[in-house]
Amino acid sequence: MLDKKKDGRSAGKGGRVRTPAFVKNLRGVRDWKEASGWLDWRGIEDIECITPDQAGVARGKMMPSKKFTSNTSLALPSAVFMTTISGAYPEDGGGFVYPQDDGDLKLVPDLSTLCVVPWESDPTAQVICDLVRQDGQLVEFTPRNVLRRVLDVYEEHGLKPIVAPEIEFYLVHKNPDPDYPLTPPVGRTGRPIGGGQGYSIAGVNEFDELIDDIYHFSESQGLEIDTLIHEEGAGQLEINLRHGDPIVLADQVFMFKRTIREAALKHDIYATFMAKPIADQPGSAMHIHQSIVDAKTGANVFSDEKGEETDTFRHFIGGLQRHIPNALIMLAPYVNSYRRLTQGTSVPVNTRWGYDNRTTAFRVPRSDPAARRVENRIPSSDANPYLALACSLACGLVGILDKIEPDAPAGTAVNQDEIELPRGLLEAVALFEADDPLRRILGDSFVTTYAAIKKAEFETFMRVISPWEREYLLLNV
Question: Can you give the pTM of this predicted structure?
Answer without folding.
Answer: 0.94
